[in-house]
């Protein structure tokens, strides 16, 4: 009996999706901890970091119901994880948590971007707008998380390639979608590989993106 | 002639609705005063504190027209109240204003939560999402008000049970909706009583909700 | 051959539209420069300053597709301008850039307000709500730009008539729409003239709008 590749891919996708959602939510939990928020703040920031990007994309594309509204087990998971974290996660665990989140976060950035690009392209958006919707899906959960904490979003000021990796991955996704010959999961795979690969490279080589030179 | 109970309830509901809207708007006005905003800032914050929660809920549920768009006498009332406040309200009146707002705010939190829960449940949302939409309706006006002032929302960091009371009230609402035998206004009444009752208890007994213990 | 007035007006409108979009986007670029954001932050702030107001109005009115989604050459222009600015604009050019933006910004405030008022009125909104939608279109790009930078929006605290001019212009637009006799572009023209004229007067005479007197 041959191995059922599509189903393997589907399972892989679901595993990435759930672990990325948890990693995104954990970034909200850690931010809430740094800001000394109460349990309501922790849960809200976890929710917004996990689902804010996709929700903003769906608002812009007028796409309903929201992903979290039709998959509410994910909301339960994020709430449960938030309560678990507030009970057991202590400052000494922060560093190891952040390291453990790195890989799911990278893969999730790629996967969420691909989902956004594909949805926008199917709704007939132009290539530029489709890639933008992909970047919004992957990046704006973190942006909303930071705005709710009264901070300038990290994605706008840390000079690391993050949104830029998602932009490149979204471009790869759209490019592959032009060819009829390729398997239907190829664009999604390309987006995940390009986004996560660039992000890993960027962190390893400590790439910096251009910023304003204010000296002159 | 028997007393017409449904109409009495309806009148009571309208009185709570209008006084709660004014109390929510006043919280925006006071925040604007603390931040030394100009008259535009005062009016916008009053509007957002009063209508922001319901507007966000309607955006998420794709429900139109907005409450304030079809009842624009409420917008006139909020605008008029804002101009009145900027003309006559002085720092020495702030404390008494805040005390006078306490009861309408509590009842309004319960009423707005019930409205949100009922709308979401009627649109077929799951119980968790329905209660969330109720909490968004009651709490996110204040959250948006604080975000527009560049502050971390009070609801996320003051360690007082506020969103939590709305959550419990929304749960009571949904629970009663399961029973066919009860009168149709019973869930709404239960939500208002549970939310406002818990909130009053919490303020009287100075309850605190858990927050992050950062010491260890 | 007579001069084709409607087409002249249409061309004038397009010129104002494009130069105002660029002026609004530049206000985002300069804000990003002051905050030392990276290239992602510069592009996002430029986009939000240029299109945020119209996008919020369309979200509230449930109007799709967004202006920028169906005219994506404008998004390309804003992106291109942002990259150009980060490459060549230096601190010594800031003052002259701000002065060059004044007129396109004034005319754009009037034009964007008129577009918002007309759209809302055609969707059957009440006069107050229509004028509010006009003000949102003209002013909330700047508000969202400031919120994303963790600042209290300039429009709420600089005590200069800005939103107030748009409010008056929107009122003039609605007023002229009551008369069947006038040419269909008259309301739009009235809104631009009143808004930009009041704004120019306000800057020349250094008018201030009322704010809170906290001393007593």
Explain what the structure shows:
Three copies of one chain form a homotrimer. By secondary structure, the first copy, chain A, is mainly α. Chain A has one domain (5-204). In chain A, 75% of the residues lie in helices and 0% in strands. Chain A contains nine helices and no strands. Chain A has helices spanning 5-34, 39-61, 67-70, 72-88, 94-122, 127-148, 154-157, 163-177, 186-204. In chain A, helix 1 runs parallel beside helix 6, helix 2 (39-61) runs antiparallel to helix 4 and helix 5 (94-122) packs antiparallel against helix 6 (127-148). The mean pLDDT of chain A is 89. Chains in contact: A-B, A-C, B-C. Chains A, B, C: The chain crosses the membrane at residues 12-30, 37-53, 73-89, 101-121, 185-204. Chains A, B, C: One of its GO terms (cellular component) is plasma membrane. Chains A, B, C: Keywords: Cell membrane, Membrane, Transmembrane, Transmembrane helix.
Key descriptive features of the protein:
transmembrane helix (chains A, B, C), homotrimer, membrane (chains A, B, C), mainly alpha, cell membrane (chains A, B, C), 9 helices, 216 residues, globular
